[in-house]
Amino acid sequence: MLKNPHHKVILTVLPYFYRFTSRATIRMKLFRVILTLFIALGIKSFSLAQSDSLQFKVLSGNNTAINDSVPSKLFVASIAIYGNKKTKDFIIQREIPFKQGDTISPANLIREMLMAREQLINTRLFLDADVYVENRYGQFVFITVFVKERWYIWPIPFVKYIDPNFNTWWVTYDHSLKRLNYGIKAQHMNLTGRNDKLTLWLITGYSKQIAVKYEMPFFDKKLKNGFNFLVNYSNQRELNYGTDSSKQQFFRPDSLFYLRKSLRAEASYIYRPGLHVRHIFTAGYGYESIADTVKALNKNYFLDGKTKESFPYFGYTFEYNNADYNAYPTNGILSSATILHKGFSNTMNLTQLQLISSYTKPILPKTQIQIKEGAMINLPFRQPFYNKMMFGYGNGGIFMQGYEYYVMDGDYGAVLRATLQREIFNTSRTIKTSATKKIDLPFRFFAKLYSDVGYVGNNDAGNSILNNRLLHSWGLGLDIVTTYDLVLKIDYSFNQLGNSGLFFHIRTDF
Question: Is the residue at 404 inside a domain?
Answer without folding.
Answer: yes
